[in-house]
Specification:
CATH class of the largest domain: Alpha Beta
Organism: Xylaria bambusicola
Low-confidence stretches: 28-33
Protein name: Peptidase M20 dimerisation domain-containing protein
Structural class: alpha+beta
CATH topology of the largest domain: Aminopeptidase
Keywords: Hydrolase
GO molecular function: hydrolase activity, acting on carbon-nitrogen (but not peptide) bonds, in linear amidines
Shape: elongated
Number of strands: 16
InterPro entries: Amidase_Cbmase (IPR010158), Bact_exopeptidase_dim_dom (IPR036264), Peptidase_M20 (IPR002933), Peptidase_M20_dimer (IPR011650)
Number of helices: 12
Bound molecules: glyoxylic acid, manganese (II) ion
Mean pLDDT: 95
CATH architecture of the largest domain: 3-Layer(aba) Sandwich
Order of helices and strands: HHEEEHEHHHEHEEEHEEEEHEEHEHEH
Oligomer: single chain
Length: 436
């Protein structure tokens, strides 16, 4: 096969994107009729629709399809010779208020590769495949890259199965896998479904490519991150009749802890963010006695994330005890002591991808764009399933520009030309690796 001669079909790719995004459109709160927003939460009915489409489509393209015990779907197209498949992989699930590109673009580009190979009756040396990883977002069941993590052996199966949906629902990952018919029979393990390599096309989700008018990011790795759940316990009391010195206001303390986490992370050139916050009892005239919030801390080096975690644990305890460290309690607010407890929900270490895969992506990107200045090296700020795939096979990623650098937002946008360019680089990277 002359790999440079094969071309993906941009119109077909974009038609498929908008067709598959009919599953989960505009379901978010407050959405209007023209909303481009997506809510295709992991293992929901709309995720099932997208999965069923993926299984049917790849089967009709001549793939053998296997589903593992985490609902990961592996579609494999035979090659001239038997052996491990080189995969294109990503995820079909979205954020509760996400866009049309995060995740599904990588899957559809893989499907477009299969269609292009079929159009040309092209044979690869070894099998090539497309994999859909379950619950990459960690939005519904709160561990990101959850099922590639189980496949890699880094997240215990039982931990994943027992995850309960965010927001107080009773469904677990296991019960939802069963309900939608994707509790597969083969073990979720790299030992059962080993891969020759894993490539992932994804939108950048940041501003760099757009700012430099560049087209393709050659991704060398992913920064480290940890997710925590922080509980702040004080005492419920009347808002009108409780003097300041007799309050243990969990919300006021939580506000200060969150501000402090942000300041401390910034000092380390890291980022800390709170995306979920709930308080009880939730009444205008009751001082909240309990607050729970998430903390997501990210930095290029594991040691930075560890240092921030240690500092925050120390400082949160001091602030809860009423010590006015760094003037953060601003002296004027006396309070009864409160308690802060932590739970670590997820740990994703800093990851470096494989030189052979990085080289395959760079060579493909330069060949496809025909202009080295349109290609840049980068590190991913967001987590991706390729992090876990890379523990057990050579792997790397391809980024395409995100308009205004925005993602996890209905405004997420990447032009059809850029989507197709990324798909072309993905296909060439897979074929290049296959013939390496
Ligand atoms: C995972 O996708 C993350 O970056 O949160
Ligand atoms: Mn994604
Ligand atoms: Mn995402
Ligand atoms: Mn992600």
């Amino acid at each position: 096969t002359d790999i440079t001669a094969l071309k993906v079909n941009q119109d077909r790719l974009m038609e498929t994107l908008h067709q598959t995004c009919s599953w989960g459109t505009g379901k978010r709160w407050g959405s209007g009729p023209n909303d481009t927003g997506m809510s295709r939460l992991a293992l929901s009915d709309t995720d099932k629709q997208a999965r069923d489409w993926f299984v049917e489509t790849t089967s009709s393209l001549g793939c053998h399809v296997k589903v593992d015990a985490m609902g990961n779907i592996f579609a494999v197209r035979p090659g001239r010779r038997e052996g491990l498949a080189t995969f294109a992989g990503s995820h079909l699930d979205t954020q509760p208020s996400g866009g049309r590109y995060d995740g599904i673009l990588g899957i559809l580009a893989g499907v477009e590769m299969l269609k292009t190979l079929k159009d040309h009756q092209a044979e690869t040396e070894f099998p090539v495949g497309v994999v859909n990883w379950t619950n990459e977002e960690g939005a519904r069941f709160p561990i990101s890259m959850c099922s590639s993590g189980v496949w890699a052996g880094d997240i215990p199966l039982e931990t994943a199965y027992n995850l309960r949906e965010v927001g107080g629902g009773t469904a677990t990952m296991r019960s939802e896998l069963e309900r939608i018919g994707y509790l597969g029979s083969i073990p979720a393990s790299h030992k059962s479904t080993p891969m020759a390599a894993h490539f992932e096309l994804h939108i950048e989700q940041g501003p760099l490519l757009e700012a430099e008018k560049q087209k393709i990011g050659v991704v060398h790795g992913v920064q480290a991150y940890r997710w925590f759940m922080v509980d702040v316990s004080g005492r419920d009391a009347h808002t009108g009749s409780t003097p300041l010195g007799k309050r243990a206001d969990a919300m006021l303390l939580a506000a200060r802890l969150i501000t402090h986490s942000h300041r401390l992370a910034t000092k380390h050139s890291a980022v800390a963010s709170t995306g979920i916050l709930s308080l009880t009892p939730g009444s205008t005239n009751t001082i909240p006695g309990h607050v729970r919030f998430t903390l997501d801390v990210r930095a290029p080096a594991d040691s930075t994330v560890e240092a921030i975690e240690a500092d925050l644990k120390r400082d949160f305890a001091a602030l809860a005890a009423g010590e006015n460290i760094q003037g953060l309690l601003d002296g004027a607010t006396p309070s009864l002591p409160l308690e802060v407890s932590w739970r670590t929900d997820s740990v994703s270490p800093a990851t470096l991808f494989h030189p052979d895969c990085i080289a395959a992506v760079r060579a493909s990107a330069e060949a496809v764009t025909g202009d080295k200045s349109l290609v840049r090296d980068m590190t991913s700020g967001a987590g991706h399933d390729t992090v876990y795939a890379s523990r057990h096979c050579p792997a790397s990623m391809i980024f395409v520009p995100s308009k205004n650098g925005v993602s996890h937002n209905p405004e997420e946008y990447t032009s059809p030309e850029d989507c197709a360019l990324g798909a072309q680089v993905l296909m060439q990277s897979v074929l290049r690796f296959d013939s390496m």
